[in-house]
Please model this.
Amino acid sequence: MAETTHPSGTGAHGAPGGDDGTSRRDFLYLATGAVGAVGVAAAAWPFIDSMNPAADTLALASIEVDLAPVAEGQSITVTWRGKPVFVRHRTAKEIDEAKKVNLSELRDPAPDDKRVQKPEWLILVGVCTHLGCVPLGQKPTDPRGDYDGWFCPCHGSHYDTAGRIRKGPAPANLVVPQYAFLSDNRIRLG
Amino acid sequence: MAQAHASNFKNPVVKWIDSRLPIFTMLHHEYNEYPMPKNVNYLWAFGAIAGIMLVIMIATGLVLAMQYAANTAIAFDSVERIMRDVNYGWLLRYVHANGASFFFIAVYLHMFRGLYYGSYKAPREILWIIGVVIFLLMMATAFMGYVLPWGQMSFWGATVITNLFSAFPIVGDPIVTWLWGGFSVDNPTLNRFFALHFLLPFVILGVVILHTAALHICGSNNPLGIDPKGPQDTVPFNPYITVKDLFAVVVFLIVYAIFVFFMPNYMGHPDNYIPANPLVTPAHIVPEWYFLPFYAILRAIPDKLGGVLAMFGAIAVLVVLPWLDTSKVRSCKFRPIYRQFFWVLALDALVLGYAGAMPAEGHWLLIARIGTAYYFFHFLILLPVLGKLERPSPMPASISEPVLKGGGRVAAGAHAKPMEKA
Ligand code: HEM
Ligand code: FES
Model:
C-alpha cells in the first residue's frame, strides 16, 4: 500500500490507495516533478540562447567587392563576417586543372562549375574546414600545396584550384559563400 | 530545547561559536588530528601544493581582472598596460601566467603519484573521479585564460580548439556558432571567455572541497598501498604532515619564483606578443605545453571526428581507470611487471608531449601515432589483462612492520596475512 512508503502516512491525511498500489499522491508527485522540469527547461532557454549570435552580429552588412584591380593570376583577401574571403582570378591553366579532375577521386566531390559562377572568378571562405586556420596560397610567395590551390599549415590540408580538399585531415571543400555579380567586375557578398 | 554542539575548546569566544557552528571542531578534526599513514613520501605534498597554486591564481587573477579589459579593440593593450604602467603589474601577470604552468606541473605529478601507488582503487574511486573533474575544469580555465591577452596564439588557439566541436555531425556547427556568439572567434567570444575564466576557478575551489571531503572519508593512501592497521601506523596531520608539506611548498615556490623572475616567458610563445589578426594564421600553432600530449593525440588520427574522439577518450579512460585496472594490489612496489609499464606510460606521455610541439608530418606524425596507440593499449588492454596474470610480490603485514622488523605495539590479531591484497 502507498501509505507504507510515506513516513507520515497513516492513511488519515493520505489519499486512498488504488487497487494497483498507486495513490493519488504518487500521481501528484510525478505531475509536480514533470511541470517543474518543463519549467526549468523553459527558464534555461533564454540563458542558453543569449549566447547565440545577437541581432547586430546577424545583421552584419553584406559587402561589395570591386574585382577590376585583380589581374589574372592574382588573389585578394577581404573580410566578411569576421572571416577572410578569398577572391582568386584564375588563369586558364588553373581552370583547366580544376575541370580535368576525376570526381570519383575527390573526398567531397563537386564539379568545378558548381563552385563558380564565372570560371575565372573563384570566391571562397578562407577558413580551413579542418579546425579553422587560414590556408596559405593568397600571396605569390606562399606555398600552394600539391594541387596548386591552398595549403593549410596547421595540420597540412591541401586544396586544389577549385578550393576542393585533396589531401590532409580536412573533411570538406572550402566553403563557397553566398554572392552575386552586380556587374561584370563587382560582386556582393552575403 | 535546541541542542548545541558540545565543544571542547577552552577559549570562550571560540567555544561560543563552535557550539553553534562546529567549524573549529571540524578543522581540528580534519587538519590537526587527521591520521596520515606515517610512511607517506614527498609525492604526497603535491595535493597541498596544487591547493596553494589555486589560491595564488585566484588572488593574482582577481587583481589582474581589475585592470584587464575584455574587448577585442583594447584587450591586448590593456595587458601591455598591466606590464608597463600598473604598479607591480608585470609581477602579478608573470606570477599568474607562470602559475598556470606550475599548477599543471603540480597536478600532473599528483596524478602520476596516484597512478603509481594505485590511489584510484577501492575505496577511492570517487575521490579519483572528482580529481579528473578538477583536471577538466583546469584545462577549460587555462584555455580561456590564454585567450584573454588576445595575441596571435590566443586567437588561433581559440579558433582551433572551439572548432573541435564542429567535428560532431549535425549539432557540430550550431554548437560552434553558439560557443562563439558569432561567425568567428570575436568580441562576444572574448567577453564570455573572460566571464567563464573568472567563474571556473571558484567552481574548482568547490570541487576541491568535495575532493578533500572524499579523501577524509577513506583516508590517504601510502607508498605501500596497504591500509593502516591502527594508530601505530599513522601520525597526526599536524605537526608531522603540515611541516613536511610546508617544506615541499617552499621548495616548489622557489623553483616557481626562478621562472617568474628570471625566465618569465620561457614557457610562453613569442607569437602571443603579436596582436590577434583574424586574417593571418601563424605558421606553426602550438597550444600551451600542458595540452601538448592531448594535442598530439588529436593530430595523430587522420580523421577529424576520430581525432576529437580520441582526444576526449584519452581523458575518459582516466574516469573508468578504477575498473580497468583489475589488480587488487594498489602499490607498484608489489607489482613487478606493471611497475615497468608505468614508466613506459610516463615516457609515452613525454614523447607525446614532444611530438605535439612538432609539425604533424613525417616521422613526428608516426611517433605520435605509436604513442597514441600505446596510450590506449596501456589503459584498455594492458591494465585489465595484467591484473589477472601478474603475480604480486610479497607484501609486509603492516606499514610499521618493515621499519620495526615486525615489532611495534601491534594489537593481537591486527597483523594482516602476509599475502593480503590491498
Ligand atoms: C584555476 C586557476 C586559473 C588558471 C589555471 C588561470 C590561467 C590563466 C592563463 C594561462 C592566463 C594567460 C596568461 C598570459 O599569457 O598572459 C590567464 C590570464 C588571466 N586570468 Fe587567469 N587563471 C586562473 C584563475 C583566474 C582567476 C580566479 C581570475 C579572476 C578572478 C583570473 C583572471 C585572469 C585575467 C584578468 C587574465 C588576463 C591577464 C593576463 O593575460 O595576464 N584568472 N589566466
Ligand atoms: S586547420 Fe587546416 S589542416 Fe587543421
Remarks:
- Strands of chain A lie at 63-66, 75-80, 83-89, 121-125, 148-152, 157-160, 165-167, 179-183, 186-189.
- The pocket of FE2/S2 (inorganic) cluster (ligand 2) is lined by residues A 128, 130-133, 152, 154-157, 168-170 (CB under 6 Å).
